[in-house]
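Researcher: I'd like a structural prediction for the single chain below. Treat it as a standalone chain; there are no partners to consider.
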Amino acid sequence: LAYRFFGQSAHVVLYHFGGLAIPDSISRGTLRKPSQRLIVSAAGPLSQLVLAAILVALLKAGGYQFQFRIDAVDRWLALEQGAQLPSAVSAIVWFVLQVNIFWPLLNLIPVPPLDGGQIVREGLAILGVDDATRIAAILGVVSGGAVAFWGYTQNEPYLGIMFAMLAVSCYQSLSGGSQWRRWN
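Model: Treating it as a single chain, here is the predicted structure.
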């Protein structure tokens, strides 16, 4: 929808790590302004968070309780009191909330090519920073390395491996000379 807002048709491609919107025709008016690219990058994670908020609002309006079993999330959702959901419905709600809360938050970590890295790069470009791509890659090395370390120390090896690979990719883009590859 964000691409269409700027007059460009696009389709969604789903991969094993997630999905992305790809414009149908590169030559027919790509998004030229950093502000447009920032909005497109933010649209996916924000739509997921809005969907989660709608589900939480519906649960609250219906008077249902729901335990996510992560104390910080349970306090944030504030769904400790109310009628109990049937177990099958509770499992579906848990899955939908997990996908629509944690995946977009993970995607907003400032590591290119994730949306967070794109948002940082385009935000820096909007501010007129000349080395926006390079700074986003440096931030990606640091952020990716930090999340990888956290994943390994928290017994989350998949998270650690994924962010270690992303950090190495950012490092490789930095050491590749003056040819900067765009991540979109």
